[in-house]
Amino acid sequence: MIANLAQGVQVFTSNVFLVDGDRPVVIDTGANFDVVAAARNHVDDLEAVILTHTHRDHVGNLAAVKDAFGVDAWGFDPSIDGVDHAIDDEATVRLGDHEYVALHTPGHKNDHLCFYSESAGVLFAGDLIFQNGSFGRTDLEEGDRATLIESIDRVRERIDPDLAEMHTGHGPSVTTDPYDHVELSARMARQS
């Protein structure tokens, strides 16, 4: 089960995905709302926090989640405050009931990761790719358009064209032809 704990929240935050199952985790913690209460509506315990990247809107609630559930945070760069353990590029990470491969995908931020499970047919795209051809901002510190395009291409080449679900850092998840949205993002990033 994958639930967006930020669904319907009317403050500036990222999406927060609870992945329940054998290893219940949250992907990103959002900011500016009580994500702990939202998580407790679904699960009693978490085993980890997994971070797509460390922009404030994705980690504003990180300390609260770590304290409430007694868990560590995993991300690409453990030198960043709040990140306890490294997830290396191409590492396998268990989220819920499935194994995901972590893909280092800089361009929006240097520590950005996407998570893809071929068996589940799921991609957690963070702020790299959004619905309808949108893609991550590159006007912030560490942003770089050419690098972002390389990262989008890497994900596009890695995922199965029959991808079932793409969960993004902002906006709605894509459950109808998500591969087409990834392809469109690759084209749009080159045109802007």
Task: Give structural notes.
With 192 residues, this protein is of the alpha/beta class. It has one domain: Ribonuclease Z/Hydroxyacylglutathione hydrolase-like (Metallo-beta-lactamase, Chain A). It is built from five helices and eleven strands; from the N terminus they run βββαβααββββββαβα. Strands 1-2-3-4-5-6 form a six-stranded mixed beta sheet, covered by helices on one side. Strands 7-8-9-10-11 form a five-stranded mixed beta sheet. Helix 4 packs antiparallel against helix 5. It starts with a strand and ends with a helix.
In short:
Residues 13-170 form the Metallo-beta-lactamase domain. By secondary structure, the chain is of the alpha/beta class. 24% of the residues lie in helices and 22% in strands.
Keyword list:
192 residues; alpha/beta; Metallo-beta-lactamase, Chain A; six-stranded mixed β-sheet; five-stranded mixed β-sheet; 5 helices; 11 strands
List the helices and strands and how they pair.
Elements: E1 2-4, E2 17-19, E3 25-27, H1 35-40, E4 48-50, H2 56-59, H3 62-69, E5 73-75, E6 85-86, E7 92-95, E8 98-104, E9 113-117, E10 122-126, H4 145-158, E11 165-168, H5 178-191
Parallel strand pairs: 3-4, 4-5, 5-6, 10-11
Antiparallel strand pairs: 1-2, 2-3, 7-8, 8-9, 9-10
InterPro entries: MBL_Glyoxalase_II, Metallo-B-lactamas, RibonucZ/Hydroxyglut_hydro
GO molecular function, one term: hydrolase activity
Domain Metallo-beta-lactamase: 13-170
